[in-house]
Amino acid sequence: MVAMADHDAPLVLVLGASGYVGGRLVPRLLEHGYRVRCLARSPGKLAGNPWAADVEIVRGDLLEAEGLAEAFTGVTAVCHLVHSMGKATVFADADRTIARNVAAAAEAAGVGRIVYLGGLGEVDASTSDHLRSRAEVGQILLASGVPATVLRAAVIIGSGSASFEMLRHLVDKLPVMVTPRWVRTRVQPIAIRDVLRYLVGVIDDPTGDDHVFDIAGPDVLTYEQMMQVYAEVAGLPRRLVLTVPLLTPSLSSHWVNLVTPVPFGLAKPLVLSLAVEVVARSDGEDITALVPGACLPYRDAVAVALQRVRDLDVETSWRDAEVGGRDPADPYPGDPEWSGGTLLSDVRVARTTAPPLAVFGAVTAVGGERGWPTWRLLWEIRGLLDRLVGGIGLRRGRRHPTVLRVGDALDFWRVEEVRAPDDSGYGVLRLRAEMRLPGRAWLEFRTTPGDAGGTVLTQRALFAPKGLFGRLYWLAMAPFHPLIFASMAQALARQAERDGTRRVTSSGGRTGPPAGLVEGDAAPSPEPPPSRRAG
Questions:
Q1: CATH fold label, 11-158+187-222+263-297
Q2: How many Cα atoms occupy the beta-carbon half-sphere of 36 within 13 Å?
Q3: Domain 344-518 coded CATH 3.40.50.720
Q4: Cβ proximity of 441 and 481 under 8 Å
Q5: Cα 377 from chain centre
Q6: Spatial CA neighbour of 425 closest among 441, 444, 408, 446
Q7: 55-102, pLDDT tens digit by residue?
Q8: Of 15, 155, 272, 345, which is least surrounded by CB within 10 A?
Q9: Full-prediction pTM beyond 0.70?
Q10: How large is the angle between the packed helices 162-173 and 223-233, nearest 10 degrees?
Q11: How far apart are the first and last CA of the chain?
Q12: Is the per-residue pLDDT at 311 higher than 80?
């Protein structure tokens, strides 16, 4: 855990702390002695991070200009790492609104500098909507009355990044690839540790000037070359890559969606960006004058990222970003059934002699590589159907095979609440569905002590239907509920009994960890030095 900075230290406001880059930037700012404030639409999502107790977390929505003043007050610098790719139907409109609100709030609060991470590449007729939007945001911030530094990066290589995960799954799964012509486009990737080094380094800029820096690693490669280097580093045979002119970026995005965990809404702008050459300008501003040091070569960046994945030390992931936004009018599982509309439910109860912590361990270990405890084929079919309509399916997996925290992705669910059983035996895990549905859905597990010892596991499938189609969907799925939900609760109870060798002491401790844990529930392993944690 990083200690809190001195109360007189400069205060940095991080926008996008729940995202891939932001979640890694926060602890590095703390390591460099900055105080950190994070703005989040849902502060609870940040609570599971190991650095949460060392920062100030405030609630706010960047799409709403009103209410941002408090978050920007007293701030020395703002790190703007928010973009709506993969979330908003028209993400450019959302990004434009957010940029204007950030610029206005920063200027009103007298902020010293805005640091923005944008996309590498020149804007012309061939530029993708994604890169065009990133460039527009940079221009809005540069045109504000606050000194701004825009860092333009291409493909970011690091464990958990969307670009790296797309590359990894394509090469791991496909020894022969039929690809579009964009695999011959030149790209200049950069390691995540160098992105973070630059983000921290440009905050303390004494010039007071605006800057636009292209940040990139030393290697200029085609995407095909990137895949072949990955195969070499991963110990895989050389991949056979066949290019055809018929695969449009849109068709390629569907193909990426089916083969990799990256959902269509995120795959499409990534693929469109790869269709355009993204190489640092030779005549651009030189960032090394402000932040000296060489960047990691591509091969080394891949090796570090792969090691992080193998060591289960993926600090943040693209999965951490929300898929779609919550409508404030939507009902929450804890609300009364009439709140916000109808809340349909399927409730199953299982009783077991296993202690609450063992039951909770069995519950929090579901999904990912382990899969779901019953009717796995039906879960796979549901995941495939979701991917066919552009959803995320089951391949997103989970960040860690046994540890859960609020905000984690779990197949096509999002962890909304997780509390290990306390001394009285009460615990809860609530998952919110992120598959394509005509409404909102949750899956909730609660442990309570049994009357004669042991544990009662209560499992609730909850659905807030949207319109008539939502209700028809629930009725159509109802015949499958006894197969899936009833047997799942019983299977989890039996799993907890099989894990009975993991004894729980009378004080609530245990001699061995259960199958699944809440982050922080087990003794942490020593932190590796900062220089090793940015892969």
A1: Rossmann fold (3.40.50)
A2: 29
A3: no
A4: no
A5: 27
A6: 446
A7: 999 999 898 888 899 999 999 999 999 876 544 446 778 888 999 999
A8: 345
A9: no
A10: 70
A11: 19
A12: no
